[in-house]
Design goal:
The strands form three sheets. The protein has a nine-stranded mixed sheet with strand order 1-8-7-4-5-12-11-14-15, with no helix packed on it. A three-stranded antiparallel sheet has the order 2-3-6, with no helix packed on it. Strands 9-10-13 form a three-stranded antiparallel sheet, with no helix packed on it. With about 280 residues, it is mostly beta strands. The chain has helices at about 5-15, 25-40, 155-160, and strands at about 45, 50-55, 65-70, 80-85, 95-100, 110-115, 120-125, 130-140, 165, 175-185, 205-215, 215-225, 230-235, 245-255, 260-275. About 10% of the residues lie in helices and about 40% in strands. The longest helix is centred in the N-terminal third of the chain and has 12 residues, at about 25-40. The protein is built from three helices and 15 strands.
Length: about 280
């Protein structure tokens, strides 16, 4: 569980105008995030392990596309173990911690995130030799975490937990296969106003995700409110033979959008897909 942030600092972030965050502002990283998540670790800022792609100016702050591309294939001898994503200036900067395996084929990841004010999006990778590297992109966006809930929330709740897989045509045995996982879930931040009732809805978001193929792990993730509504993940796995691709996830509700001290567990969901390379 993550330690709560300084309350005054968080409130300031929520009310600062977007223009207050300038490109190259590493204050949150240096004073909060680095010590909280990587205390005592040496982190090299480099694109040699992973590269991060995000729009300089986002069209919609609630669904900002982010893509992490690895610079080498996953193998038993050399692979990326974990990738962390942060949006520095979000009220809760932690986006997710993503665990990869040799069976992942590639430690590539694409998803959509919420950006609440002008901010660096930051990706940190750990390789299996224990080394850390970091890359970042500055994104101009405003209001992504507090973007209003649409009038169709009740319908969205009826679809909650439904899952769809989509794989590229012509997948080959033993080769990394690009996979898209689409989950129906509103992923409420706890900062959004219901347009019908005018009340702020309590947070309700996916917190744990596990993808396996024939029982072997492909992708594990701890995620939070910065993931967009109806999460959409693109990643790779290696189908060495026909089998079952399975996604399992849980959700949670928290009393505060910026603290994880008081949370209630929600539901558990799973969906399988038959793969025949």
């Amino acid at each position: 569980m993550h330690k709560p942030y300084n309350l005054i600092y968080l409130l300031a972030l929520m009310i600062l105008p977007a223009t207050a965050a300038a490109e190259g502002d590493d204050i949150t990283w240096n004073t909060v995030l680095k010590s909280q998540f990587f205390a005592g670790k040496n982190i090299e800022e480099s694109n040699a392990v992973i590269e991060l792609d995000a729009p300089y100016r986002a069209e919609d702050p609630a669904i900002v596309p982010v893509k992490v591309t690895s610079k080498f294939a996953q193998s038993k001898d050399k692979y990326i173990k974990k990738i962390w994503l942060f949006v520095d200036k979000n009220p809760f900067p932690f986006v997710g911690e993503f665990e990869f395996f040799p069976e992942s084929g590639k430690a590539d990841l694409a998803l959509r995130v919420r950006v609440n004010t002008y901010s660096d999006i930051r990706a940190v990778a750990e390789t299996n030799d224990g080394k850390f590297s970091m890359t970042k992109k500055f994104v101009k966006a405003s209001g992504g975490c507090s973007a209003p809930i649409g009038a169709d929330l009740d319908e969205a709740m009826k679809r909650l937990g439904k899952v769809k897989f989509r794989l590229d045509d012509g997948i080959q045995s033993g080769q990394p296969a690009l996979t898209q996982l689409m989950i129906s879930h509103p992923n409420l931040t706890g900062m959004q106003m219901d347009q019908m009732t005018r009340f702020i809805r309590k947070s309700h978001f996916i917190d744990q995700l596990k993808v396996t193929f024939n029982g072997k792990p492909v992708l594990n993730a701890k995620i939070d409110i910065a993931i967009s509504a109806d999460p959409n993940f693109r990643f790779y796995f290696v189908p060495d033979k026909a089998g079952e691709l399975k996604a399992e996830f849980t959700d949670v509700s928290c009393e505060s959008p910026t603290s994880r001290n008081v949370c209630s567990k929600g539901g558990s969901y799973s969906q399988s897909y038959t793969v025949s390379p």
